[in-house]
Design a protein that fits this description.
The chain is an alpha+beta fold and 146 residues long. It has helices spanning 2-15, 120-129; strands at 22-23, 37-44, 55-61, 67-73, 76-84, 93-98, 108-111.
Length: 146
């Protein structure tokens, strides 16, 4: 009996993923940084495929209190992460939108706890600008997804 219950639970968990990337063909709405207050600019390391702290993160706050961060490498903005304040005692909602193919449309939405890797198109454009370097390939980022 116990074995059947565990099997049923495992099948139920596999049938309905706890986290899933939402795809919206027309794209998710990208905020307008010009209409927000810039709070900070910092460099972060988001990929092992480019040496050092390669990603420029710009932090903004909208008049409604929403905080968002744009992520870019060498001028190529590829993602935006949002922190929407929760009502009353609820925790904030955190999610990110990503342009996964470089067409300027932020079609992928990642929820809290999901890992969005730096898209290949951003890394490829980086190495076109820096031909002296060599892309170690996707395997270099394999440990980040864990």
């Amino acid at each position: 009996m116990n074995r059947q219950w565990v099997l049923t639970l495992l099948l139920a968990c596999n049938a309905v993923p706890l986290f899933a990337v939402e795809i919206k063909k027309g794209g998710w709405l990208f905020p307008q940084p010009a209409r927000a207050e810039k709070k900070a600019i910092r460099t972060v390391d988001t990929t092992d495929r480019i040496p050092g702290r390669e990603t420029l993160m710009k932090v903004y706050q909208k008049s409604d209190g929403v905080i968002f961060e744009t992520l870019e490498i060498e001028g190529e903005v590829y993602a935006c992460q949002f922190h929407v304040k929760g009502k009353d005692d609820e925790p904030p909602t955190v999610y990110a939108i990503v342009d996964t193919d470089g067409d300027g449309v932020y079609e992928s939405k990642f929820g809290a706890g999901e890992v969005a890797r730096t898209p290949d198109w951003v890394i490829q454009r980086y190495y076109k600008k820096h031909p002296e370097g060599k892309d170690p390939g996707p395997a270099a980022d394999a440990h980040r997804a864990q």
